[in-house]
Structure formats: C-alpha cells, structure tokens
Amino acid sequence: MASTEQVLGTWILIAIYASAVLYFVIRGAMGTKSMKDYAVGSINFSPLFVGMSLAAAMTSAATFIINPGLIALYGISGVLSFGLFFPIASMLSLVVLTKSFRKFGQSVSAVSLASWIGKRYNSEGYSLFIAFLSVLLITFIVLILVALTKVFASALNTNEVFTLAAIIIFVFGYMMFGGANAMVYTNAIQAGIMVIVAVILLLSGYNHFGNGISGFFETLKSIDPVLVKATNEGSPLFRDFWEIILAQVIIGAAVVCQPHIITKSLLLKKESDVNKFLVTAIIVEALFFAVVIVGLYARIEFPDLMVNGEPLSNDSIIPTYVIHVFSSGWIAILVGLFVILGLISAGMSTLEGLIQSLSTSITNDIINPLFGKRIAGDRSYMKINRIVIVLLAVVAFFLSRHQLISPKLSVAIFAQNGVYAYFSIIFIPILLGIFGKSVGLMAPLWASITAFVTHFGVYYGLPYIVNNNIASLGYFDKYFVGTIHNPAIAAASAIILSAIVGLTIYQANRFKPKTINAN
Predict the structure, then answer these.
(1) What is the per-residue pLDDT across 335-364, written as a single tens digit (0 to 9) for each?
(2) How many CA atoms lie within 13 A of 274 on its CB side?
C-alpha cells in the first residue's frame, strides 16, 4: 500500500495535472469550430510537437505498464518480442507508410482512416464497413483505462471501480470539447514527461547490475531458469520464434495502421515537416519501447510475485513496483510521484487519441452517411460527436470493470484480440492504396473480408476444435490448447492470408486482357 505521504503527493499531482489539461482543452476548444477541426486541427503545429504526440500515442500504457508485467512473468523471451522485434518492425513501417498515406489524405481532405479508404477506393459502402469495424478499438481504450486505474488505485489506496469511474468522467468529459487542437499539445507535454520517466525507470534497477550484466542474468536465473531463455514454452505468448519473431514482425508492421497513429501525419500542414516529424517520433519511441525491461527489475524485487502474502496480478506488477521502489525518503517519494505522473501520461496520451479518432470515425463515417440528410449544419455534428463520446464512455466503463474483476491473465489479451483484428483487416487495403496502381475495389475488399474471417476463425474456431478433440493440428495444437490464446497468432495468420487473397486479385485484374473498342 502507498504511504500517507505518497497518497497526499498523488492528490496534489492530480490537481496540477488536471488543471494543466483543462487549460489546453479550453485553448483547443476555442479553435474548434467544425468536425474537421476536431479531427485534424486548425492550428499549424510544430513537427516536433506532432512527432512527440505520435510517440506518446504509439507506445501508451501497454508499453509502460501492461507489457512489462508480462515480461516480469515470462522473462527475456518477452523482452525480445515486445522490446526488440515488434519495435523495429513498427518503426520501419511508420517511415515507409507515413509519407504516401499523408500525401493522398491531404489531397482528398481525409479526416479519418475510414474516410481515407472510402475515398481511395471510391466506395462509401467500404468506408462504412471499415468504420463499423473501428469500434473494435474500444478494446484498446479498455486496456488503457485498466492500466490507469491500477496506477491511481495503487497510489491513492482507493477502490478500483470507483477510481475507474472518476477517470472516465474526467477524460471522456474533456475530450468532448478539445479535439486535435488540444490533444497535440497535451500529448507533446505528456511525451516530454514520459521521456524523463522512461530514463528514471530504466535506471531504477541499476543496483541489480553490481556484478555486471552476467550477474543480472544470474539473479534472474536463480529465481527461475526459464526467465533467461530466448523462448518460454510455459507461457501463452512467447513459446517459440514464430510467436516471438515472425508474428511480432508482422504485427509490428501492421500496428501503424491504427487511426490514432497513421492519421497523425495529417496534422502537418507542410510536406517539408514530415522528416522532422518522423525523426522525432522514432527517437522518442525507441526510448519508450526500452521501458519493457523494467519488468525484469520488478521480477527481481518480487521473485515470487507476491506482496504482503497476496499474489500480484499481471496488470498490478509495475504500479506496485513503482510504489515499492520509490518509498524510502522524501526525495525517493518525489521521484516516485513524478514516475506516477509519467505512467498516467503514458495512458492519457493514447487514450485521448483513441477517443478522438474513434468518435470522429463514428460521427463522420457511420452517422453522416446513414443519417446525414436529417442533420443540418456542422454544429449538429459537433453535438452528435459529444453524444457518441458519452456512449463510448458508458460501454468502456462496463468492459473495463469486467477486466478489473476477472481478466484472462491480463487485459492485454482482451485488447490485442480487438486491436489486432482491426489492423489486420485494414493493413493490406492500406498497402494497396498507397503502393498499388489502378487498384479496383475487389482486391482490398476481399482482403479485408479474408482477414476478418481468418482472425476470428483462428482465435475462436481453432481452440474449439483442438480442445474438444474434433481434430488435431499437429505442431500448431500448442497455440490453441487451454483458455488463454495469443491474438498475435490469429492476426499474423489473418494478415498473411489477406495478403495472398488481395495481391492475387490485384495481379489478376492488372493482367486481365483489356477490351478493345473497334470504333
């Protein structure tokens, strides 16, 4: 439990943080006159600010809180997966996709990912299909809310469900007004805090390196020899190199195709700003991704993953580690409070982006095409967007409450299933839209359908087949036994089959004999 000093300090921190956020929300709201302003902003942002905003949005509470918890459980295999192969693939993908995506998005005034796809393939129906699927991103919102709840509840010694409700009321409340104009500034400030906190967290385990790196590994090995192995056959996520390397490289490349990530480039008003934006984002992201190593420090601090005789849940490990490590002396407490602020920033930065992008897509890409004839004026859409945010808040509360009370290993599994499904469905259509020539509707549409069916078929169908002894998949049985399954396996399979289907149709259409007009 947090000490009285830590609780008091956290309350003061919350008051300062909330005041700063509200200042930028009010400032941003003054420049938000339309749904386009809410979605992509009306201010000429610095590329450094947008790059910091992207880095904060791309890493989030998963990188600072949830994934290190999994690494505390499963060791070096998790570091290779979440701290090396996934980041390399995601950052390379960001560089490759950003410029071309932005160029077309600016030319057609796209304000969301669904609208980009709809305009690229000249299909309102396809845009509507993608917009409905974007609702899957609420699973990521749930992950962040759970992570933030764990941090606040640990630092304040408060009830988790009440803490969750307070977070939702505050964040969803201010996101009804500020939009992109406020979010870029708050994200940039959050990213600045996260940079300092990332360094503090990485240095927090320096005492474990008294005998060098080999001594650090020996300490881990004495706790459990599997913690220092490149694979962990007893885990549900890092059993072999297919899960650790191949699946994570595929997922890392596709993860960029989320609305709150790839659409960040649309905030830039000048093409000359793109390189500065990318360099800033990649340098900061590399530091953030390294934070997963802190999970190893936490395992050394809690070798049996117990505190005061109570077992630690995966999602509570890092918040508990921070309270434990930074509790001796007022200087340590102050540093710990700043670290708590960084963990809060890690969650808030992505949460804001998800609320903004998801509500925008629902308003612009679902409500407008279906009911636009009955809605007059942009002010009406702004009001509708606020109602959408309220409804998202209600749904997010009940889903998050369930994950707090009865998670399957970690909220990460729940979130990955939804988020990975979404970007596996849109990855190939975005690639075809950026790099293909004369791409018709059929190739991307069937790629999306294939990915949708494959992801959920693999994630839900194959475990049913294996666990009920209907059939054996041989070597692949191990991925589907039991009750906890790796969403990366389903998503990687979906992307591979989606690519085969989409590219086959695309090539077939390219080489189809053209009809010659005799006249």
Answers:
(1) 988 899 888 888 887 788 788 888 888 888
(2) 18
pLDDT in tens, 424-455: 999 999 889 888 888 889 999 999 999 999 99
* Cβ burial, residue 270 (10 Å; 0-12/13-18/19+): exposed
Domain-by-domain residue ranges, the chain? 4-510
How many degrees, rounded to 5, is the angle at CA 86 between CA 457 and CA 47? 115
Structure tokens at 466: 């294996």
4-510 under CATH 1.20.1730.10, yes or no: yes
* 515: its two tokens: 């009809």
CA distance 414 to 505: 33
Residues with Cβ within 8 Å of 509's Cβ and at least 6 positions away in sequence, in order, are 440, 442, 443
**How far is residue 172's CA from residue 397's CA, in Å, rounded to a whole number?**
11
* pTM exceeding the 0.90 threshold for the entire prediction: no
Indicate if the pLDDT at residue 133 is higher than 80: yes
| Closest by CA position to 129, among listed 329, 425, 408 | 425
Number of Cβ atoms within 10 Å of the Cβ of 44: 10
Is residue 201's pLDDT more than 60? yes
Residues contacting 362, CB < 8 A, separation 6+: 131, 134, 135, 388
Q: Specify the 3-state DSSP secondary structure of 240.
A: coil
Q: How far apart are CA 404 and CA 489, in angstroms?
A: 25
Q: What are phi and psi of 484, to 5 degrees?
A: -110, 125
Q: How far apart are CA 489 and CA 487, in angstroms?
A: 5
Which among 30, 23, 54, 388 is positioned nearest to 181, based on CA atoms? 30
Nearest to 396 by CA among 219, 122, 162, 165: 165
- Asked if residue 124 has pLDDT above 60, the reply is yes
Burial 194-219 (b: 16+ CB within 10 A, else e): bbebbebbeebbeebeeeeeeebeeb
**Angle (nearest 5°) at CA 256 between 252 and 261:** 140
**CB contact at 8 A, 294 and 202:** yes
